[in-house]
Write a structure and sequence with these properties.
- The protein is of the alpha+beta class and about 425 residues long.
- It contains 11 helices and 21 strands.
- The strands form 7 sheets. Strands 13-20-17-18-15 form a 5-stranded mixed beta sheet. The protein has a 4-stranded antiparallel beta sheet with strand order 4-10-7-8, with helices on one face. It has a 3-stranded mixed beta sheet with strand order 6-5-9.
- A hairpin with an 8-residue loop joins strand 1 and strand 2.
Length: about 425
């Protein structure tokens, strides 16, 4: 790629292309908009069915891909014929969500027949002036999305009409070959992102299903499935007496600069929940700040951070010593118990915390209340085996998440520099 900074020319451009891009109305490139707003099966004297032609709604259309796991509903042959007659969709056709959410863009992934459902429109392009792949990327570029957002109407759920779309001007290459190069590049990137997203979601669903089976159900003392070599009932333990020491946090005065920008990690609840391990906090405090507050240094490796307010139940394992604010009741796991097993028990601990939380302004669970939780535990060897299994699974999930983050960052950077 070569870089150039001329008027109506993108900052980054593929080699072999030159000249300014042209400015036209968005709908000047569109032969037809397929829009079934307000249409329902009942208005056609029919109803959705358990199988048949898949309906695509705004919930299915994500940024760059179709999520078939959400909102599955279908239409039989009669419904398809009445609904889609004369407006059949085709592979690579661009879909756009008009509201709830507004502005998601994806393309039909294959040659299957689909029913276009609520809050989603499909563009029929003029093939001599714009390619479908390029349109799909253009609609996600920062400039176009900002214009759509500025012109959208509604309160909580923003929406756009065809009248709004008619007000949008776009800047695009005059040569279809340049549009093709750009569109194909982003399509490959989207396919790669989609692959990692699907693997991430599949592994997450596998983890969720196995968690349900590898921990005893309520009223039972053995799990539905367990590793070979282990038998017998799990024993009931009290979380705050037998399993862990529960430690809260604190906040140094923000008015005293000497308390801040030190070398001690100091976590807030908003930093927890996305990654298994807490490797470093956004804000740091000094030793003087630590001494002045109720915050305490928590040991690495055997501390499971647990958010007790402003989103109860998010967890992370502390990778290096650090402290927290008062939005935590952290679990310093005692000898003979596995920190990763306890982390994997997070769903059960969160359910207990939410059930026993109280407060008028916001819900909060105290360390004393959390400590009263009765939790079933196998022997240490089985805890370790279960913990190691979920650690490997979490590592795979995290690797795909990191790739997703990296690829999405690359895509956003390209979107901002490859369009005018």
């Amino acid at each position: 790629m070569s870089e150039t900074k001329q008027a109506k020319v993108p900052e980054i451009r593929f080699k072999g292309f030159s000249g300014e891009w042209g400015v036209v109305g968005l709908l000047d490139n569109i032969a037809k908009i397929i829009d079934f707003r307000g249409r329902t099966p009942k208005k056609l004297g029919l109803d959705w069915s358990a199988s048949g032609y898949r309906a695509l709604s705004a919930l299915n259309v994500k940024q760059g891909y179709i999520d078939f796991s959400i909102d599955p509903h279908f239409g039989n042959q009669e419904l398809y014929d009445k609904w889609m007659s004369g407006s059949e969709l085709h592979k690579d056709q661009v879909l756009f969500t008009t509201e709830a959410p507004m502005g998601n863009v994806a393309q039909i992934p294959n040659s299957d027949k689909y029913i276009l459902s609520q809050r989603t429109i499909a563009f029929v392009v003029k093939p001599k002036v714009i390619t479908e792949n390029f349109l799909a990327v253009l609609l996600r570029s920062p400039k176009v999305f900002q214009e759509l957002s500025a012109l959208s109407s509604g309160g909580t759920a923003k929406g756009v009409s065809q009248r709004v779309l008619a007000k949008i001007n776009i800047t695009l290459p005059r040569e279809l070959t340049e549009q093709t190069s750009i569109g194909n590049t982003f399509q490959k990137l989207d396919n790669l992102i989609n692959q990692h997203q699907q693997k991430h979601d599949t592994l997450s669903n596998i983890k969720k299903a196995i968690l349900e089976k590898m921990f005893p159900k309520q009223g039972e003392t053995v799990p539905e499935i367990r590793f070979k070599g282990f038998s017998g009932e799990w024993e009931e333990k009290e979380l705050g007496t037998d399993v862990a020491e529960i430690i809260g946090g604190g906040t140094p005065s923000t008015a005293i600069s000497e308390f801040w920008d030190g070398d001690i990690d100091w976590y807030s609840p908003t930093e927890i929940g996305k990654r298994v391990y807490a490797n470093g906090s956004e804000k740091k405090i000094t030793a003087l700040g630590l001494k002045s507050s109720s915050a305490k240094i928590l040991p690495a490796g055997n501390t499971v951070l647990f958010t007790s307010r402003a989103g109860i139940g998010d967890m992370a394992i502390l990778a290096k010593p650090g402290a927290t604010n008062q939005g935590f009741q952290s679990l310093v796991v005692k000898e003979g118990f596995s920190p990763y097993f306890l982390y994997s028990s997070g769903k059960l601990i969160k359910e207990f915390a939410l059930k026993h939380a109280s407060g008028s302004t916001f819900l909060e669970v105290s360390g004393k209340q959390l400590g009263r939780m009765k939790i079933l535990m196998p022997n240490y060897e089985e805890q370790t085996t279960i913990g190691n299994y979920f650690q490997k699974l979490d590592t795979l999930i995290d690797q795909h998440q990191q790739q997703l983050t990296k690829l999405n960052n690359i895509k956003q950077a390209c979107l901002s520099k490859m369009f005018v």
